[in-house]
Amino acid sequence: MVPIPPGTVRLTDRRTERSWTVDVPAFELGAFPVTQEQYNGGDGLPAVEVSWLDAVRFCNTLSERDGLAPAYRLEGGEVEWDRSAPGYRLPGEAEWEHACRAGTEGPRYGDLDEIAWYEGNSGGRLHPPGEKRPNAWGAYDLLGNTWDWCWDLYDPAVYGEYRVLKGGGWADEHWSVRVSVRRRSHPAFRVDDVGFRVARSR
Fold it and tell me: Where is the signal peptide (predicted)?
């Protein structure tokens, strides 16, 4: 986990041409995406084909393993976030974008080929976390390699329970691997370029 200082981030949605500003308190974020080894005893590649609901359940399991009160209450398909709980959780979209920017203002926190695996350099496959340069706050692979699930609903009035994905993946073209890009998917959806990383409130 790396400490993320407080700050303010401006989010944008190209589909609706809407933008909004969010104040982000200090929090902690996983320096790397969760790996298959951590998730299911597999190898050191990022855990993929993990749904949003899978990621939420893993956060609670990890919290219980470390003796922390879980952040989520699950009843059937409903998930409630207990914001006072110290356990692991998914980052909010504003938290993710603030952490990814790490004080920068541009579309990326560095040269794309130096910081991310994407369609132009991935060789059509996943790569182990940490092979590319981190951002200024010590987080790796926020852009490229795998998309990260975020806590937030994408646009409930239009897409219902679909959740936000951020960061771009190994199969995406360069224009998709930018800090501000938002993608959406159903919370039960699983695919080979979507993973997650954990966060904790401070």
Answer: none
| Mean of the per-residue pLDDT values of the chain | 97
Percent of the chain as helix, strand, coil, to the nearest 5: 20, 25, 55
Task: Read off the pLDDT of residues 118-145 as tens digits, 9 standing for 90 and up.
Answer: 999 999 999 999 999 999 999 999 999 9
Per-residue 3-state assignment (H helix, E strand, C coil) for 36-78: HHHHHCCCCCECCCCCHHHHHHHHHHHHHHCCCCCCEEEECCE
The total of other beta-carbon atoms located within 10 Å of residue 134's CB is 18
- Give 44-78 pLDDT, tens digit per residue: 999 999 999 999 999 999 999 999 999 999 998 79
DSSP state at residue 33: P
Alpha helix ranges (H) inside the chain: 36-40, 52-65, 93-101, 112-115, 156-159
- Global pTM exceeds 0.85: yes
Under 8 Å between Cβ of 165 and 183: yes
Angle at 109 (CA atoms; ends 35, 23), nearest 5 degrees: 90
Contact 86, 200 (CB under 8 A): yes
Residue 14, pLDDT above cutoff 90 = no
Residues 58, 63, 69, CA angle at the centre, nearest 5°?
Answer: 130
Residue with tokens 């989010």: 11
